[in-house]
Amino acid sequence: MTVAVITPSYANDFDRCRLLCKSIDQRLKGNWKHYILVDEIDVALFSELADDHRVIISERTLFPWWLRSFPDPFSSRHSRMWISPFSKPMRGWHAQQFRCLAIARIITEDLILTIDSDVVMLKDFDVATLESDDGTRLYRLDGVFTDDMNEHLDWSKNAGDILGLSNENMPRNDYITTFITTRRDTTCAILDHIEKTQNMHWIKALTRHGHMSECQIYGRYVDEILGDKDHKHTSEELCHVLWNAHTIEPTVEGLRSFAGQMEPHHVALGIQSFVGIGLDHIESVLADFES
User: Fold this and answer.
1) Strand-pair category, 54-58 with 32-38
2) Residues 211 and 88: beta-carbon distance below 8 Å
3) Radius of gyration (Cα) for the chain, nearest Å?
4) What does the pLDDT look like over 180-198, one tens digit per residue?
5) Strand order in the sheet with 268-271
6) How far is CA 40 from the centre of its chain?
7) Is the pLDDT at 109 greater than 70, yes or no?
8) Parallel, antiparallel, or unpaired for β 135-139 and 180-183?
9) d(CA 128, CA 121)
10) Residue 76: predicted pLDDT
11) Cβ contacts of residue 156 below 8 Å, gap of 6+?
12) Alpha carbon of residue 236 to chain centroid
């Protein structure tokens, strides 16, 4: 079983992405190839990370001609916005999800392992374990969306609308995680299904919904259309993620304490770039696990 490791990234996360690449090279075992998906303007910057098992892919290769990025006139951080004739302007998190879906149509690997650029691997992990006789690993927490989780409920509802599913008794399952496993053939089938159901390019269909999650789209398709075929559910995440700044002290000792809370099934640490943890702190923790 071959595995495509997918990392959508951008210039502001370049140093974090380079650290991810270092940890992947040290820790990831098995038959894999790494694809870093970036905006056309960032290809030159990321090209230094390319080697025999790592490829830099421009989104120009992935997106239709009518979806392009432009400088965001309202941002002071050199951010971009994505303009389409079929929707309001979109942000980078939209584009990153589009890239992760679109790549399925141009690669040949069997499985896709999506790892964000703000993740580092701390333990050895063989990609062969993503697949078993029971199917491909699929993360799911059952019935966890409560009435006050408006954003998550919107993601699930919009996934149902995009897939042409009924939301009358919408499942409240959570498929959102970091270090995500999907099947390439299933992802391609999802894109085909959206285009057939919505009678338009799948990106155009997705742009009609401002709030979306590719994890929810994939999970609801597998469970409600495929009937779990070729997949095996698990509630165990592979990545221990720091989502909120107030969770720990923004020091190297605070980060070490957080890393010390990793469960046996965790193989990586995810530090959201907006929580204010310095790259030097992450490098220190990475060095701890190397020794």
Assistant:
1) parallel
2) no
3) 19
4) 999 999 999 999 999 999 9
5) 119-121, 268-271, 239-242
6) 19
7) yes
8) unpaired
9) 16
10) 64
11) 145, 167, 170, 171, 172, 173, 213, 216, 220
12) 17
Nearest CA among 72, 76, 13 for reference residue 46: 13
Strands in the chain per DSSP E: 3-8, 28-29, 32-38, 54-58, 68-71, 80-83, 111-114, 119-121, 125-126, 131-132, 135-139, 180-183, 231-234, 239-242, 268-271
More confident residue, 26 or 245: 26
The C-alpha atoms of residue 216 and residue 36 are separated, in whole angstroms, by 22
What average pLDDT is seen over the chain? 94
Q: How many CB atoms lie within 10 A of CB 4?
A: 22
Q: Are 194 and 230 in contact (CB under 8 A)?
A: no
Beta bridge partners of 29: 126
> Would you place residue 156 in the very low, low, confident or very high pLDDT band (cuts 50, 70, 90)?
very high
One-letter identity of residue 278: G
**For strand 180-183 and strand 111-114, is the pairing parallel, antiparallel, or unpaired?**
antiparallel
Rounded to an integer, the average pLDDT of 35-56 is 97
Q: What sign for the dihedral angle of Cα 147, 225, 265, 247?
A: negative
User: 3-state DSSP call for residue 77?
Assistant: coil
